[in-house]
Design goal:
Keywords: Signal. InterPro entries: PbH1, Pectin_lyase_fold/virulence. The protein is 11% helix and 41% strand. By secondary structure, the protein is mainly beta. Strand 13 and strand 14 form a beta hairpin.
């Protein structure tokens, strides 16, 4: 400290003779007369910036004074190895420790302009560690984020798996199922891998998983929100299921309404397919004619299929049939509700409809007939089916050797179970008829039919009329 003061004092003393001479001589602007050191030769004109540069330099401020200065003021102690957290850099001196966190600034001197200025230390850290690079006139370490590193004077990107650089371009090595489409990455289900998280899961493609057993109507654009016309999208779905008859097609709804608006479209269930509805889904129509049509083939060839778990609503359009099994064989219709139509379920066609099974179907709010079997409907089985709130016939049998087990007819019918002359050799077992007109009516020509355990209650007409030949009735109260 004494030496520093001595240098300053020497400079001041050296100026004294020059001041007297300056009264007779003209000095250059912004300069003084003096010496820059004790043995620096005769006094001469010294630019003020040069003087300041020599006066304010290394070792000009002691540690003790520096430690007492408040934060955010000029702090500089460019010692070599014993520096504390208040070190800084002036004119490219080594930066040997991190500034503190109190908003400190580094004071710099620009020799070109002869001015001082401050700057934030930024990301400078302790010197002498890996990755040292240069930032202007400051020397230190740049704190890089994960994936970045310094190589020479460059900052390199540490790429992850699947990424590489080709010249100045970043390239990606895409996995299975991913391809480039222009500037986008496209996903291809036919090659993308999939493995079940369940124990024993095996690897397959995503498309194989999609096609393994189930297709969903929503994948083909059905909204089933009660307002969108789903007819076109639904037919695409039904056609897709038909292409892969080993698959099950599921009609999916939404979390709020689950009403698929078919409007004037027909729901055609192709031969050999299985169509189911998610719980609560309603297929709503606004058209006359057949609404849901599981169909076979005009040649009469056998086509087995399933229609299950749906509610079919005909919107009370005159001339509508809820479900029409057309030229079908070995079809199953079960757990279905049919409402607001003229006829609930119809079995028939142009050639034959046989060996079909209708189970646990409920027909309600029917204007005419609940279940209608025309003359080509033979050897079909109806089990546990019910019809309520209807205007004409509960079951109308016009075919041969059909079986009706545990069926129920309630409220508003003129005849619960009726026939024409083609209903021959059929079995009616455990039928229940309540709150309507006539019970069972076997007309002339309806021969060799068997009635077992028929139950009648609150009928306004005759409970049992037999006009045929070879018919029998046992048990029950009708």
């Amino acid at each position: 400290m004494f030496r520093r003061h001595s240098i300053v004092a020497t400079l001041i003393l050296a100026l004294q003779p020059a001041l007297a001479a300056a009264q007779q001589q003209t000095l250059p602007p912004n300069s003084v007369v003096g010496r820059l050191g004790i043995s620096a030769g005769p006094a001469q004109a010294i630019p003020i910036p040069q003087l300041l540069k020599n006066v304010i330099g290394p070792n000009s401020i002691p540690n003790s004074a520096l430690a007492q200065m408040p934060a955010a003021t000029f702090k500089c102690n460019p010692s070599v190895s014993t520096a504390d957290a208040q070190d800084c850099t002036i004119q490219g001196l080594p930066f040997t420790a991190s500034p503190d966190t109190n908003n400190d600034r580094v004071l710099l001197y620009n020799a070109g302009t002869g001015t001082f200025y401050t700057t934030s230390p930024g990301n400078l850290a302790a010197g002498g560690t890996a990755g040292v690079t240069s930032l202007g006139s400051l020397t230190g370490v740049i704190g890089l984020a994960n994936g970045l590193k310094v190589t020479g004077s460059d900052i390199d990107l540490n790429l992850g798996n699947g990424l590489s650089t080709s010249g100045g371009t970043l390239a990606a090595s895409l996995g299975a199922g991913l391809t480039f489409s222009g500037s986008n990455i496209a996903w291809t289900s036919s090659t993308a891998p999939y493995t079940s998280a369940r124990t024993g899961g095996v690897s397959q493609t995503v498309q194989s998983r999609f096609d393994s057993g189930i297709l969903y109507s929503a994948d083909f654009g059905t909204a089933c929100d009660g307002s969108t016309n789903d007819g076109v999208a639904m037919d695409k779905f039904l056609a897709a299921v038909a292409v892969s008859p080993s698959k099950t097609g599921i009609v999916t709804g939404t979390s709020t309404t689950s009403v698929c608006n078919m409007n004037t479209s027909q729901f055609q269930v192709r031969p050999g397919t299985t169509i189911m509805c998610s719980r609560g889904v309603t297929l709503k129509f606004n058209r006359a004619g057949s609404l849901v049509v599981p169909y076979g083939h005009a040649s009469g060839r056998t086509y087995q299929g399933v229609f299950k778990g749906c509610t079919v609503d005909g919107s009370s359009v005159v001339g509508s049939i809820g479900v029409y099994l057309f030229d079908t064989s070995d079809w199953v219709v079960e757990d279905t509700v049919i409402a607001n139509v003229d006829t609930g379920l119809y079995i028939g066609g142009n050639i034959a409809a046989y060996y079909n099974r209708v189970t646990n179907v409920v027909a309600r709010d029917i204007r005419l007939d609940g279940y209608y079997l025309d003359p080509v409907a033979n050897s079909n089985t109806l089990v546990g089916d019910r019809v309520t709130s209807l205007g004409q016939y509960g079951f109308y049998c016009r075919g041969n050797q059909n079986t009706f087990v545990g069926v129920q007819i309630e409220t508003g019918f003129s005849e619960a179970f009726t026939t024409d002359g083609n209903c021959i050799g059929s079995t009616i077992s455990g039928i229940r008829m309540e709150n309507g007109g006539t019970g069972i009516h076997l007309v002339s020509g309806a021969n060799y039919n068997t009635v077992v355990g028929a139950y009648c209650q609150a009928l306004s007409g005759t409970s049992y009329i037999n006009s045929g030949t070879g018919n029998s009735k046992t048990g029950g109260n009708c």
